[in-house]
Amino acid sequence: MNGAPAKNILEMRTGEPESPERRSFLGAVTTLIGAAITAVLVGTIGRYAIAPALSTSDASGWTDVGLLEEIPDGRPVKRSVVVSQDSGWGRFNSQRLVWVIRKGPQITVFSASCPHLGCTINEAASGFICPCHGSAWGPNGEKAGGPTLRGMDSLDYRVDGDLLKVKYQYFKEGVTAKEPVS
């Protein structure tokens, strides 16, 4: 090597050295492209990974059970309700079952999920029964027998005009106390 400075491709082709303005322009363009890519990635990651954890749910949690006049007096009625849940980046709807008992103006709403292991509770001549393991409850949801450790799980309800609404909630299974899961 003779100590001569290395020539870039442009200088080899044209015989003229590359201008500093061109080099600084290409550097600025490259920096802007890199900044744009970074901004898109940060925006995407922020929106889909961080924002759901920081956002508050605007759903009230109340779901329609049906018209109050459609619920017979003195007889339990099984109803299907739609429950909305936020899960990660989406909102999902699922159908859950509830038992509604109306005695005059008094209303009781129970989850139809067995507190023992989550099977669906059915109506029986003496109240309610779980077909999976034989747990039984009286007509007011109190424990009457079987492996369940507690009575049926009651749910909060309200009446808006002539519409019955329930706030569906999940409870821990297989424990003595009624402990909400979510």
What is the CA–CA distance across the termini?
Answer: 75 Å
Return residue spans where pLDDT drops below 50 for at least 5 consecutive residues: none
List the helices and strands in order: HHEEEEEEEEEE
Overall mean pLDDT stands at: 81
Structural class, from secondary structure content? alpha+beta
Account of the protein in words:
- This protein has 182 residues and is of the alpha+beta class.
- The chain is 23% helix and 32% strand.
- Strand 5 (122-124) and strand 6 (127-129) form a beta hairpin.
- The model has no long low-confidence stretch (mean pLDDT 81).
Question: What does the secondary structure layout of this molecule look like, with pairings?
Answer:
Elements: H1 9-14, H2 20-54, E1 62-67, E2 77-87, E3 90-103, E4 106-111, E5 122-124, E6 127-129, E7 136-137, E8 143-145, E9 156-160, E10 163-167
Antiparallel strand pairs: 1-10, 2-3, 3-4, 5-6, 6-7, 7-8, 9-10
Core attributes:
single chain; 182 residues; alpha+beta; four-stranded antiparallel β-sheet; three-stranded antiparallel β-sheet; 10 strands; 23% helix
Short description:
The chain has 182 residues and is of the alpha+beta class.
